[in-house]
Amino acid sequence: ADMDIGIIGMAVMGSNLALNMADHGFKVAAYNRTASLTKEVMEKTPHKNLQGFYDLAEFLHSLKSPRRVMLMIKAGKPVDSVIDELIPQLDKGDIIIDGGNSFFEDTIRRYKYLQEKGINYFGVGISGGEKGARFGPSIMPGGNKDEYKHVQPILEAISAHVGEEPCCTYIGDNGAGHYVKMVHNGIEYADMQLIAETYLLLRHVGGFDNKKLSQIFHDWNKGELHSYLIGITADIFAENDENGQPGQLVDKILDSAGQKGTGRWTSIQSLKQGVDISMITAACNTRVLSNLLEERKKAASEITAPVYDDKVGEDFIEEVRKSLYAAKIIAYAQGFSLYNSASEKYGWHLDFGKIASIFRAGCIIQAEFLNKITEAYKKNKNLTNLMFDEFFLNNINENQSSLRNIICLAIRKGIPIPAFSSALQYIDAHRSPQIGANLIQAQRDYFGAHTYARIDKDGVFHHKWQEHYN
Ligand code: 6PG
């Protein structure tokens, strides 16, 4: 038995991760329930450090002790059934690593279940899609800290790097890694939604064609907005359609977005934890709404569109850019405030600065400005909301007038910008001296004797409200 690690699941992510490990000198055993897939990978991408197995017992026997078995299979039931298949064939101290997008509560449950059987379980968030898996993803491992040493060398070696630093760090106990990956995806949804709204603004308010859009995003990518998603967006607007029409492919794509669910999980979780991540929720809702093609058609013909055709000023593009940056900052502030609450709720002791730092390369939300998040937590590790860090605060103060202008423009033109508006609502709800909750408390006390607190004296109060008008 001399194989360093075994991977179960030879679909896109599993096979690319296997090759990545093999490249880094680890001997990788590959197994897939449907043998033909393993065979295909072995034939198409042979590697001296990669060996295919067609029998689960042989696969497991090939592994060094403690055995490391990584699951790269569809999240949900399949993970449970493979775990149950593995248990009788594993020894105490062996390790199962789930590298899929599993729901963190499932990971917590499986971690406990396997712990009772003496098997170590790691729930590992992996971001970066196919290319990341092959050449260096961002990796978020959660599990037993003392056992982490058994998986650390492999995970760090295959991860993306910023200079010498691996984009992989131990996140926390049990489900912490999958939780952090889930919220990463939520932030990814908000980031993508903001870019989509920016596109609508530039196109329908600015009147720019795809060639110009590509140029704008390309230029932005050289500055403080520098990020993977801005970069691929510049590429997308430059892509020709099948007839060679320049930059036209994006116009041929149906205006209806899919989702596998991690963004929705984030949003549901935020409600459970009582944390406002309105931008991520807005992004989820917009994807859902985008699918209502018939209803949207009906609404488009029956609901009058606003008439407004003021010309935009010369600084329009720059105002949009500033708004995008400010709103993006709010999306991260929301995502990280969810981390903050989860860290306490689940006892994970999350290192927020470190989490931001492993997002700097490999993952979908990789961006220049993540450094600023790391710095913010370095300055103050008890920061409750990123908005209160000096850099973020200055940015919000400098750019909020652009954000207001752009939002007003979009609203007058009837362009849907749910994520942009949520960002501003979040700022104003925090900033405004009054949020209207005094009236809500009065109503609650009126109809349900739910009581209220007062500004002028301590205590719990109930009032016998009079019916003045009814
Ligand atoms: C990543 C991505 C990856 C996947 C998303 C897509 O970090 O590499 O987030 O996990 O592409 O799950 O999510 P939707 O299908 O929900 O858009």
Name some characteristics of this structure.
Single alpha-helices involved in coiled-coils or other helix-helix interfaces; binds 6-phosphogluconic acid; 20 helices; N-(1-d-carboxylethyl)-l-norvaline Dehydrogenase, domain 2; 9 strands; 470 residues; 54% helix; seven-stranded mixed sheet; 3 domains; alpha/beta; two-stranded antiparallel ribbon; Rossmann fold
Task: Describe, in plain words, how this protein is organized in 3D.
The chain has 470 residues and is α/β, with parallel strands linked by helices. The chain has helices spanning 12-23, 35-44, 56-61, 77-86, 104-116, 129-135, 152-158, 176-205, 210-220, 228-238, 249-252, 262-273, 278-290, 293-302, 316-346, 352-358, 370-379, 390-413, 418-431, 437-448, and strands at 5-8, 28-31, 50-53, 68-71, 95-98, 120-127, 138-142, 161-162, 165-166. The protein has 3 domains: 5-174, NAD(P)-binding Rossmann-like Domain (Rossmann fold, 3-Layer(aba) Sandwich), CATH 3.40.50; 181-431, N-(1-d-carboxylethyl)-l-norvaline Dehydrogenase, domain 2 (Orthogonal Bundle); 436-470, Single alpha-helices involved in coiled-coils or other helix-helix interfaces. 54% of the residues lie in helices and 8% in strands. It has a 7-stranded mixed beta sheet, with helices on both faces. Strand 1 (5-8), helix 1 and strand 2 form a beta-alpha-beta unit. Helix 8 packs across helix 13 (278-290) and helix 12 crosses helix 13 (278-290). The model has no long low-confidence stretch (mean pLDDT 97). It binds 6-phosphogluconic acid (6PG). Residues 101, 127-129, 185, 188, 258-263, 363-364 line the site of 6-phosphogluconic acid. Belongs to the 6-phosphogluconate dehydrogenase family. Keywords: Gluconate utilization, NADP, Oxidoreductase, Pentose shunt. Pathway: Carbohydrate degradation; pentose phosphate pathway; D-ribulose 5-phosphate from D-glucose 6-phosphate (oxidative stage): step 3/3. This is 6-phosphogluconate dehydrogenase, decarboxylating.
